[in-house]
């Protein structure tokens, strides 16, 4: 029996009923939790310049759909070399400290000259190194230690002896005795007064001047005095500077006077004020109220005191004039030609008898005449006695002194 297609029974449709599952809901919850954790991890704070991004000008450009292009030149990119700071390095000399100061100044100048186009970015270059330079010490804040640079003592003829000499043996003689350590240890103030630029600078500082006088007054007079007398004799010898001395070469004449006047100026400049304990010479040259206080010391070198000069009438002046009065009696001392004039001026200012004027200048031949209380060292002492003293001298002095 055939059944037509129209009468064929339709197959029954399956109806799928939705069931509720718990798994998809749990997965969705875990996914949302993971996203929130990831978002909190990647979140960061962004600062936006409101003046740039929220200004009315840029809002207008956004409405019109236009793009603003900055056509100005881009800022220059400077090469910045970064070096690790050496905290353990401390300047050991004035030149090193000066180099540090110069490099710091250069970096500061470079920072200040930055273009105005980089005004939105502030670059601060700071250094914690501060260096102070002084005539005698260098201090730095890098290390708690302080490096002290000792200032050398003043020396005579420290600028240049020049070339104005008749014979080449004369400047050679100067170089020989000036470089000798024994001569240098004597610190001859008599040669420093007229021919030392470093001593002139030291006179501006009481501290430096006192240090110089301390060294000069600690020098052994028994060695230095005959040494200077011998150098004076050798200086004007024909084999050395005799020709220039006869022509009155100023450098040679001043050196000769300074060598002869070593002992009287040694005693005078080493006098100390009984009240203050300071050196009388230091008080005289640093007295800004009366420049004449220093003039009597220069008379020991053969220089006359300026007319009308009136030094301060102190005990220091009285004692100094007493020393000079004794040495003025020697024929070979420059004081023989200058003392009486100086004493007369001092007496006018300080009263009659303040300085001795009844002495016979130049009356003692070739000897260092002395006042009561001072020893005497003959400038023409025997060769044996002088040779005994020369054992402590350097070998470089052998040919200078002729032994």
Automatic annotation (TrEMBL):
Residues 1-43 form the signal peptide. Residues 152-358 form the DUF7729 domain. The keyword Signal applies. Keywords: Signal. This is DUF7729 domain-containing protein. It comes from Exophiala viscosa. The lineage of its organism: Eukaryota, Fungi, Dikarya, Ascomycota, Pezizomycotina.
């Amino acid at each position: 029996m055939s059944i037509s297609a129209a009468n064929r029974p339709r197959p029954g449709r399956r109806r799928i009923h939705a069931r509720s599952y718990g798994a998809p809901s749990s997965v969705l919850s875990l996914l949302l939790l993971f996203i929130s954790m990831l978002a909190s991890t990647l979140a960061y704070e962004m600062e936006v310049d409101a003046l740039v991004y929220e200004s009315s000008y840029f809002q207008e450009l956004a409405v019109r759909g236009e793009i603003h292009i900055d056509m100005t030149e881009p800022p220059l990119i400077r090469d910045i070399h970064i070096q690790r700071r050496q905290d353990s390095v401390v300047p050991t000399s004035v030149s090193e400290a000066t180099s540090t100061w110069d490099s710091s100044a250069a970096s500061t100048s470079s920072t200040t000259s930055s273009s105005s186009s980089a005004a939105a970015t502030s670059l601060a270059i700071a250094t914690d190194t501060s260096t102070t330079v002084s005539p005698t010490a260098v201090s730095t804040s890098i290390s708690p230690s302080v490096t002290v640079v000792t200032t050398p003592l003043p020396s005579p003829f420290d600028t240049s002896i020049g070339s104005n000499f008749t014979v080449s043996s004369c400047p050679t003689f100067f170089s020989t005795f000036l470089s000798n350590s024994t001569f240098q240890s004597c610190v001859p103030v008599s040669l420093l007064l007229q021919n030392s630029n470093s001593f002139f600078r030291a006179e501006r500082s009481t501290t430096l001047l006192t240090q110089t006088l301390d060294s000069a007054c600690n020098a052994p007079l028994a060695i230095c005095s005959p040494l200077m007398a011998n150098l004076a004799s050798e200086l004007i010898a024909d084999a050395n500077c005799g020709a220039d001395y006869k022509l009155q070469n100023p450098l040679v004449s001043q050196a000769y006077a300074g060598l002869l006047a070593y002992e009287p100026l040694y005693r005078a400049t080493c006098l100390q004020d009984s009240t203050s304990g300071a050196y009388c010479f230091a008080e005289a040259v640093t007295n800004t109220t009366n420049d004449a206080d220093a003039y009597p010391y220069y008379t020991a070198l053969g220089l006359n005191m300026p007319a009308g000069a009136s030094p301060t009438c102190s005990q220091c002046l009285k004692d100094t004039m007493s020393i000079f009065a004794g040495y003025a009696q020697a024929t070979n001392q420059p004081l023989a030609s200058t003392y009486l004039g100086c004493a007369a001026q001092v007496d006018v200012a300080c009263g009659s008898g303040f300085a001795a004027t009844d002495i016979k200048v130049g009356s003692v031949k070739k000897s260092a005449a002395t006042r009561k209380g001072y020893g005497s060292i003959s400038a023409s002492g025997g060769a044996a006695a002088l040779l005994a003293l020369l054992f402590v001298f350097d070998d470089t002095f052998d040919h200078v002194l002729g032994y």
